[in-house]
Specification:
The complex is a heterodimer.
Chain A (H helix, E strand, L loop, with lengths): L1 H14 L1 H29 L11 E9 L5 E4 L2 E2 L2 H8 L3 E9 L3 E5 L2 E5 L2 E4 L3 H4 L4 E3 L11 E5 H8 L8 E4 L3 E9 L12 E4 L3 E2 L2 E2 L7 E9 L5 H12 L9 E6 H7 L14 H28 L1 H13 L4 H38 L11 H27 L3 H6 L8 H34 L9 E5 L3 H5 L1 H8 L5 E7 L9 E4 L9 E8 L3 H5 L3 E4 L12 E6 H6 L4 H4 L3 E2 L2 E7 L14 E5 L7 E6 L4 H16 L5 E4 H8 L1 H35 L1 H9 L4 H35 L10 H28 L2 H6 L2
Parallel strand pairs in A: 7-12, 9-11, 20-25, 22-24
Antiparallel strand pairs in A: 1-2, 1-15, 1-16, 3-15, 4-7, 4-15, 5-6, 5-10, 8-11, 9-12, 10-11, 13-14, 17-26, 17-27, 18-26, 19-20, 21-24, 22-25, 23-24
Helix pairs in contact in A: 1-2, 1-10, 2-8, 2-10, 2-21, 8-11, 8-13, 8-21, 9-11, 10-11, 13-21, 13-23, 13-24, 21-24, 23-24
Chain B lengths: L1 E11 L4 E12 L4 E5 L6 H8 L7 E6 L2 E2 L5 H11 E5 L10 H11 L4 H14 L15 H13 L5 E5 L7 H18 L2 E5 L3 H4 L4 E6 L2 E5 L5
Parallel strand pairs in B: 3-8, 3-9, 6-7, 7-8
Antiparallel strand pairs in B: 1-2, 1-4, 4-5, 9-10
Helix pairs in contact in B: 3-4, 3-5
The chains are: A alpha+beta, B alpha/beta.
């Protein structure tokens, strides 16, 4: 019986190759995309679960109200909290603090490197988290304050093939450490990542980190015992801190380790790049399911349209004794065969496409997860379900025909045409929503790129002076560079737009109580010129400003506005301890999600600068860079030159949007491709069914144009209807997305029009190919065949 | 074997009821060879379909081997269908994607006959109709007469007690028609198979023992030749 079904299925596929091919391609790509999304989701959902005690690890966090009533979540805890919790709450078995060292100058012998991955933590890190040692051991590794633990990758990088244990590493020129342990590289699925770990110091900036109400910068994790309830534990925290720490209105809660990667809402994170927004998980799942559904729809449409070609078989089989169930099983069997073949192809698709996805998303996803027996088991069930979703309706329709109706050839046979039309509309709505979304994301990215930043980032080289030694030679280095003719302008500062920097509370108002938070940067008199920032009133700094009694300041427009002045009025007004001498046009200095906030610029004076910024001539960039590099080596040979181009820095501010844009482009292309495959198949079948009609029409004088219109117009109507349905959905969804940006592009009708036209042209090309072919065919051929 | 009482078959249009069959009373005994004749649209095929369980009457009673078909459910009908009835069609209705061998074998699959037994049954049938050499050909590689032989072979493979043939020779020329009719006659005489055929041709009808004339959905006369 089943052999018979197999045979007839394969003979049918062979007879109508385009039908089999369309379904195979659509389903393979659809299932493949879902698999890739699955691997992606699996990666994100599995975060931190490699930790053996993952279910009992929590991060201590607080939630309180911000100045505008919004909830502010924070994971920055006081240094003494961890030990206090262990001492006072019996359910807490262990606690650990972790904080970043910041970019460190790493000196090994005479060699210097910069390393951004140094972590400060406590020895208990290894009791709570699972970072296995390959040399040394977790008990003794961080027992002294001068101990340092490296990952295998770091050990390899710094010590090549030497034994790293016992070697000396100097951080930031005067902190000496001895390597006491090597741990395996932290997994990619860990929200804690590091290149090296040093012991938490007893004091920072000369004050004990165990003092209360001083420094909140430690992420604190606790390990609860198996039976403990996190709710009970977190309720105990305020009580034990009473009288020790200023609590305010913030409440403590224990954030489960497994929630950190996807559900964290902290304002600051240990490693923001290891946090992912769960909404994207939902979004990608939905997109994946829709792409798969569109592929299923192709089968439903083609199978029901082609039902007429199977009618005789249904009639004969039924008159030979087949029940509806037999036929139902046969027809679902056919789609299951197709789906399972597609599933095999889709595994190949995944292997083929994953490198591109990794490149696009800057991830290292591995397909190994899909080769596990457990996954394959689930996959087989899923593929079966996909086959059933596609096949159940066509199989039901086909198997329910009554042989008497079939043989009589009367019109009772169900046409399912309405359903098919509806499904084509569905396919094109989804395609169109994705196209519109892609266009809007692109438009927003273009908006970022074209937006007047209030400064010009092109050809600006920023050299960062990371160590005290390089900072000391900063002024001399600047002096040297300024002689070079390919450098248009050069300046020094202690902060830069696009980089994180310091913020300062000023009290400019009468009441001396209402604060104004401003970005605070020290710059030299050439800075505005180098950045091409525009002074709209007052004057720039000059050399003598650093010596004046009251520090002069240049503020931005927003600051002036917040203080209630016109730019001209602000000059010579006092601002807290400064006096305003100039107002600069607003410039972006942080993410586009935020509105521009007040900024205060002060003269840099004699203190050593942090950054040297140079505007280069557009020509000869390579030559100029080589020259600068040489100059650097002469002056600071031991230290690697740390530099970035400012336009790259700004681009990285919207990198995640860029990735989203790329991803949506891929989604949109795949969706419209699968939808058009189906349309093509449907059109080809319809045209072949109407060959005779077209022959007659041609004999009676219809032109090729008439015929193409006749064949295409029904489908084009459906595409247009799909477009109309897509507009409000896409408009609503994308406005939600755009609302997260303080600066956003306008969503005009042009985007919708462009998306609609794109889809229409693609659909037209798809259907007209077939209809032109049919229209051009010789009528005598088609009429003779009857 | 077959007892039809007051069988009606109609289609309801908006304002009127169009009768295809009206008040059909018919008795057929085991071993009969009956030809149903009548003009196009008289309801011959519909009557055949009702007898063969492919269609349901709207009204009336139908007893097959004394069982009331009008009260049977789909499954029971299907059982009868499988064990007692074979169909032969005017347009042969072979499945294009199956070979001669597979077409003949197909009804056995629905009767859950074992593989080895199926093999020998199909081989017998191929032998009987002298089409062994053609067993791996597809229907479109055969002539009309050969296709109809396969059609008959397929109808016979389940050893039915009743063969229903809807203009079995309608698409064949006279030599081929004769061959098919002689086959039917032989089956009827030697194996006692009941045969009901629909035909337009007096010559073909004459192979049968009894003729039923249908006109506008009612039986006008039976056995016009015997009187």
């Amino acid at each position: 019986m089943f052999r018979n079904y197999f045979k007839i299925a394969f003979r049918n596929f062979k007879k109508d190759k385009s039908y089999a091919l369309i379904n195979l391609t659509g389903l393979s790509v659809g299932i493949g995309v879902c698999l890739i999304i699955f691997i992606f989701l699996q990666f994100h959902i599995g975060f931190d679960l490699f930790n053996e005690k993952a279910t009992n690890i929590y991060r201590v966090t607080t939630v309180g109200q911000g100045p505008n009533g919004e909830l502010q979540h924070s994971g920055n805890m006081e240094g003494a909290l961890a030990q206090t919790l262990v001492d006072e709450i019996p359910e807490i078995e262990a606690a650990v603090r972790a904080t970043r060292y910041g970019k460190a100058l790493v000196s090994i012998g005479n060699e210097n490197f910069y390393d951004d991955g140094v972590l400060r933590s406590d020895p208990s890190l290894f009791d709570i988290f699972t970072f296995p040692f390959s040399q040394g051991n977790s008990k003794s590794a961080l027992s002294n304050k001068t101990d340092i633990v490296l990952t295998e990758a770091t050990a390899q990088k710094y010590f090549k093939n030497q034994n790293p244990i016992g070697q000396e590493i100097v951080l930031n020129e005067n902190n000496r450490y001895t390597v006491t342990g090597i741990v395996e590289n932290p997994p990619a699925q860990s929200h804690i990542n590091f290149s090296m770990i040093v012991n938490m110091p007893d004091s920072l900036s000369g004050r004990s980190v165990m003092d209360w109400n001083w420094l909140r910068s430690f992420y604190t994790y606790v390990l609860l015992d198996e039976q403990a309830s996190p709710n009970i534990v977190e309720a105990k925290i305020p009580g034990i801190l009473e009288g020790k720490m200023f609590l305010g209105d913030s409440e403590f809660y224990l954030q489960p380790l497994k929630d950190i990667h996807l559900k964290s809402e902290l304002g600051w994170e240990l490693l923001p790049e290891r946090i992912f927004n769960i909404n994207y998980i939902y979004l990608f799942s939905i997109v994946g399911i829709f792409i798969l559904l569109i592929a299923c729809v192709n089968y439903v449409n083609l199978a029901t349209a082609r039902a007429t070609t199977r009618l005789k078989e249904v009639g004969v089989r039924k008159s030979a004794g087949a029940q509806q169930g037999n036929l139902f099983r046969q027809f679902t069997g056919e789609i299951l065969i197709l789906t399972f073949i597609s599933a095999v192809f889709s595994l190949g698709f995944v292997e083929l496409m994953l490198p591109y996805v990794n490149n696009l998303m800057e991830l290292q996803l591995s397909s190994s997860v899909i080769w596990s027996p457990l996954f394959l088991g689930g996959f087989i069930i899923a593929v079966f379900l996909i086959g059933m979703i596609s096949g159940i309706y066509p199989a039901f329709v086909l198997s329910s025909f009554k042989p008497a109706d079939i043989f009589k050839g009367n019109g009772k046979v169900v046409s399912s045409e309405g359903l098919r039309k509806g499904l084509v509309v569905f396919q094109f709505s989804i395609s169109m929503i994705l196209i519109i979304s892609t266009l809007i994301i692109d438009r927003q990215l273009a908006y970022f790129q074209d937006k007047n930043l209030g400064l010009n980032t092109e050809q600006v080289l920023n050299i960062s002076l990371e160590s005290s030694a390089t900072r000391k030679m900063g002024s001399a280095f600047l002096e040297n560079l300024s002689k070079y003719s390919n450098i248009q302008s050069i300046s020094a500062s202690d902060g830069l737009p696009g980089e994180s920097g310091s913020n300062l509370y000023l009290y400019p108002f009468e009441d001396k109580e209402t604060p104004m938070l401003t970005r605070y940067m020290s710059i030299d008199p050439k800075f505005l010129e180098t950045m091409e920032m525009e002074l709209i009133s007052g004057r720039n700094f000059n050399e003598s400003d650093t010596k004046s009694e009251v520090t002069p300041a240049i503020v931005n427009e927003v600051a002036v506005k917040e203080m209630g002045w016109q730019p001209e009025e602000a000059i010579n007004q006092s601002l807290d301890r400064f006096v305003i001498i100039g107002v600069v046009k607003d410039f972006h200095y942080e993410s586009f999600e935020e509105e521009i906030r007040p900024a205060t610029l002060v003269p840099i004076g004699d203190e050593n600068p942090q950054y040297i910024s140079a505007r280069l001539n557009a020509s000869n960039i390579t030559e100029t860079m080589n020259w600068i590099q040489q100059e650097w080596e002469i002056m600071a040979g031991a230290y690697p030159m740390q530099y970035t181009f400012m336009d790259d820095t700004f681009e990285s501010l919207y990198q995640s949007e860029q990735r989203l844009g790329n991803l949506f482009t891929a989604f949109a292309i795949i969706t419209i491709f699968i939808a058009c495959l189906g349309l093509f198949g449907l059109m080809a079948f319809m045209a072949s069914k109407r060959t005779k009609e077209i022959g007659i029409r041609k004999v009676l004088g219809a032109s090729v144009g008439n015929i193409v219109t006749l064949l295409s117009k029904d489908f084009i109507k459906l595409v247009v209807l799909g477009f109309l349905i897509a507009i409000p959905i896409a408009w609503y969804a994308m406005n939600q997305w755009l609302a997260s940006f303080a600066y956003r592009t306008e969503v005009g009708p042009d985007i919708f029009l462009f998306a609609g036209l794109t889809a229409l042209v693609i659909a037209l090309l798809t259907v007209s190919w077939q209809s032109i072919k049919t229209a051009l065919s010789n009528p005598t051929e088609s009429l003779k065949s009857e | 074997m077959i007892k039809l009482r007051n069988i009606d078959k109609y289609i309801d249009k908006r304002l009127q009821r169009n009768f295809i069959l009206k008040g059909i009373d018919l008795d057929i005994s085991e071993g009969d060879f009956i030809s149903i004749m009548g003009p196009s649209g008289a309801g011959k095929s519909t009557l055949l379909n009702i007898i063969g369980f492919l269609d349901d009457a709207n009204d009336g009673e139908y007893f097959f081997l004394d069982d009331p078909v009008h009260n049977l459910n789909e499954k029971q009908k299907s059982e009868y269908h499988r064990s007692y009835i074979g169909f032969v069609f005017q347009a042969y209705h072979l499945i294009d994607e199956l070979t001669v061998y597979e077409n003949i074998e197909m009804p056995l699959l629905y009767r859950k006959v074992k593989g080895s037994q199926r093999k020998s049954m199909v081989a017998d049938m191929l032998d009987r109709f002298n089409i062994v050499a053609k067993k791996d050909l597809f229907p479109n590689q055969l002539s009309g007469g050969q296709q109809q032989l396969v059609g008959v072979a397929r109808a016979l493979i389940g050893s039915p007690k009743l063969i229903l043939a809807d203009e079995p020779t309608g698409n064949l020329h006279s030599d081929q028609s004769k061959e098919i009719m002689e086959t039917f006659q032989k089956l009827n005489k030697e194996d006692g198979v009941t045969i009901i055929q629909v035909t337009h041709s007096d010559e073909m009808a004459s192979y049968g023992e009894r003729i039923i004339n249908l006109q506008d959905g009612t039986i006008t006369e039976t056995n016009p030749y015997e009187e």
